[in-house]
Amino acid sequence: MASNKIGYSNREEVINENNKYSWKLGNQPLIFSKNYVISKPNEPEKWFFPYSGDTYLLSVTNTFPAEDFYIKIQDTKGKYKEQIIQLQAFNMYILCSSENERQARSFGPRSNNPIEVIFERN
After folding, report:
1. In the prediction, which pLDDT does 40 show?
2. SS3 letters for 25-73?
3. Which of 19, 41, 63, 119 has the fewest beta carbons under 10 Å from its own?
4. Consecutive 10-residue runs of the chain (122 residues): their mean pLDDT?
5. Given strand 2-8, what is the order of strands in its sheet?
């Protein structure tokens, strides 16, 4: 599995000191995690963050300065080349379904773009 870390422009690992960047995992490195299914067996598939689906995500505060950060994607098994990708404000999504619906009614659909990562073999 790949190690997905986030860091400042100096490419250092970012520690979420006193929950400055994220509401969870205070004083630990910021790491992307896979969204997970919360539905019970024999029920339609339901994700914890419904607008994220089957992806990796990082839950951050509303004041997170995306442009100041890069993500580092590293295959811990060494099959694929390491990638460092700069974040942009348009990579950010509001994952709360009620907030997304309210915003869509007020301002129309958002034009955000998820980060697409294409792996290149070593």
Report:
1. 92
2. CCCCECECEECCECCCCCCCCCECCCCCCCCEECCCCCCCCHHHEEEEE
3. 41
4. 53 86 89 89 88 83 87 88 87 66 57 80 92
5. 2-8, 69-75, 83-86
